[in-house]
Each structure stands twice: as C-alpha cells, then as structure tokens.
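Q: Hi! First time doing this. I have a protein sequence and I read that you can turn it into a structure. Is that right? Here it is:
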Amino acid sequence: MAEMIVKMMPIDANEKKAYIYYRDGLSAQNDGDYSEALENYEESLKLEENAVDRGETLKNMAIIYMSNGDEDRALQTYLKALEENPKQPSCLKNMGLIYEKRGRLAKQAGNQDECDIWFDRAAEVWSKAVRLYPGGYLDIENWLKTTGRSNIDVIF
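A: Yes, that's right. Below is the predicted 3D structure, encoded as structure tokens:
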C-alpha cells in the first residue's frame, strides 16, 4: 500500500526510489538487520538530492555505527549529516554521548586532562543541541549546569 502511494506522488522518479530505499532501510533498522539497513541507506544516498533527507539518512547510519560500537565512524557520519542539515539536534546529542563516555573512561583511567578535553567537546555539541531543541534534553541541560560547562541560559 505504502509503495503504491509513493508511486502516485508527484515527485521525480529518483526521489521516489531514494525514498523507497530509505523506507526499506528504516524498516530493516527497526528489525535489527543493520547490514540490510546500511545497504538500503547507501542506495538511498546515491539517489537522494534533498539535503534534509540526506541528513536524516546519514543520521540513521550513524546510529547503527554507534550501536555497533564503531564510535569513530559514527562521529564521522554525524558530521556528514550535519553538513547536509545543520539543524539536527539528535546528531549533536549523540555525538555528545560519545564524547561524554570517552571523558568518563579517561577519568576512570586517572587522566584528568584527557577527561576535560572530552567533556569540553561534549559540552560544545550539547550546548548546540540544547539551542536547537530547547527543553528537549533536560538531562543534558542538567549535566551542562552541574558540570559548570553551560555557556547558555537554560530554563528548568
């Protein structure tokens, strides 16, 4: 049914194909079939011209990389997603999660200087996320405030 609706939509044939690949990728991702999801997302990106849609596809790919433990690739892909569409607070939020985790690990290892570097990076991207989505990330706003890394006014 959904495919029939897409076929009837008054948009370019490549855009339709890109959407179908994206939709199939999202379905596979929701089913936990990350390999198939990534394949569909890659095909979608080959056809998709809309920057917002490309950003959403890249964000979903980054989520898969992140959940598979490939944090470096996730970070690279989040950055690509933000190049396509800078107004994606969830990309910034997830990047901050990686940075904050690295900061905690550095702290546990007794490396305070490295910890501060990672926490500062987390604060930088999380501050941007909070600006884009005020009130949407209360836990992050609280972390920024309690760590003294908030450079913005947050409303509680």
